[in-house]
Amino acid sequence: MCEFIGRKRELDAMNALYNRPGFQMTIMYGRRRVGKSTLLQRFVNGKKTIYYTAVLSSSQRNLELLGNRVIEVLAPDMKGLVFQSYEQLFSFIGERCRDERIVFIIDEFPYMAEADKSLVSVLQKYIDTEWLHGNMYLFLCGSSVSFMEDEVLSEKSPLFGRRTSQIALKPFDFLEASQFVPHYAPEEKAIVYGVTGGIAKYLSLFNDKKSLDENLQELFFSNFGYMYEEPTNILTQEFRSISSYSAIIEAVAAGRTKLNEIADLTKLETSTVSHAASNLIDTGILKKEYAITDEGNKKKVRYALADHMFRFWYQFVAPHIDIIEMGAGQVHYERIVKPRIPDFMGEVFEDMCRYYTLLLGVRGELPCLVSKTGRWWGTNPTKKEETDIDVVGLDIINKEAVLGECKFRNEVLDKKIFEQLKERHGLIDHRYRVVKYLLFSKSGFSDWILEQQEHEAMMAIDLERMYGLTN
User: Fold this and answer.
1) What are phi and psi of 470, to 5 degrees?
2) Fewest CB within a 10 Å sphere: which of 145, 173, 265, 295?
3) 149 and 121, same structural domain?
4) C-alpha–C-alpha distance, residues 96 and 106, integer Å
5) HSE on the CB side for 289, CA within 13 Å?
């Protein structure tokens, strides 16, 4: 069995509820491949469990399969018993959970609920009338984030108020992701995080006994590789027709960040783009960004890919399918992809640095308690040009801020970059006083930067420090 990595906080919370007497109910949701089923399987190890993964089929078929699983776990001597309804099945389960602690998991719950529109109400009935007085720990789990939020968690749901906890399972952060490839150098760990988006399934495919180049070639640039068709597979599972969605993702991956720019490139109506973008945000593929401290400015809104794997695939795989199909994926990778990876990693590195800035704030290693990070972009009135700030960390209570610049390049970060960052201190909300400048670099720093850190209220942070290898 593969080593189980991370998710300690989630496991601790689930075990705490398991050890609490009486009925408990956790709603777990998150995008496909993020590791929900693996986490649940880890949690139920050694516990009496009815674990059923719903299928995309009829209500009758799900009832039949779930019934078989219930009999197998709770009453194997009654093999062959057929349940005629969910009511009959749920009553049977409830009777056996009155005293004994039993975990009941319905994975991919939306498949069952969409096949039988009354199922959510039936569940609510049995929770209120029978299960609430027993010793069941119920999990409803799903990959359709919008369904779980709208039909299970929202106020309009019959199940509203019944849950004990909810877990929105997120991709791994860059530090957790590095545990999948412990033998790689920091730069390689960062690239693995970037091309997988921190998704558990994709991370588990990397073998750090092979070189990074070998892994990337085999996974993405061979038509036999797992990642070769993965974005298409994800979109097909989420949407009936994927052509518009794929075109929108391709446009955003190419640098189009506004609705009208995306519409112009895709030749789609703006309303179509807006609707599709909303759905892509719900699935965790796309995100809507606001310039920090200017969230109320509707002109400062842009779309970006929340999932870096999609951005990597649409930049480097999708446009070159013909070459890869010919068996020339290795040549394509060496000549076209590999030289451009540092550019691709620019956005990834910025995300890593914003997360690390929060960590520094929580650890007390900054002069203020940073509780919110983001990026800022807009016009520099002094220079009359568009500019941006990669990292802005805010202490909202004390109105203090830290500003950061990120460079995932082969050259060292020098005095000029620091001075450019320092010039931008007046661009964010004037209510915030800048107390520190953070310089993040893949390749280290000039002697001037290292010598002047303390005098200039700046902090130089390289990849080794980010990964905890140096202080």
Assistant:
1) -140, 165
2) 295
3) yes
4) 17
5) 18
In the chain, what percentage of residues exceed pLDDT 90? Answer: 89
- Judge whether 2 lies within some domain: no
Give me the pLDDT at residue 2, please: 57
- Residue 263 belongs to a domain: yes
125 in Cβ contact with 85 (< 8 Å): no
The length of the chain, given as a count of residues: 471
d(CA 140, CA 163): 10
What confidence tens digit (pLDDT) does each residue in 292-313 have?
988 777 778 899 999 999 999 9
User: Could you give the number of structural domains in the chain?
Assistant: 3
274's enclosing H/E stretch is: helix 270-282
Pairing label, strands 400-407, 49-53: unpaired
> What tokens does 313 get?
């695939």
Say yes or no: 102 and 69 in one domain: yes
**Exposed (0-12), middle (13-18) or buried (19+): which is 190, by Cβ within 10 Å?**
buried
Q: How far apart are CA 147 and CA 87, in angstroms?
A: 23
SS3 436: strand
Write out pLDDT tens, residues 217-240.
Answer: 999 999 999 999 999 999 998 888
Reported as a single tens digit per residue, the pLDDT across 95-105 is: 999 989 999 99
CA dist., res. 302 & res. 289, Å (int): 5
What SS3 class is residue 52?
Answer: strand
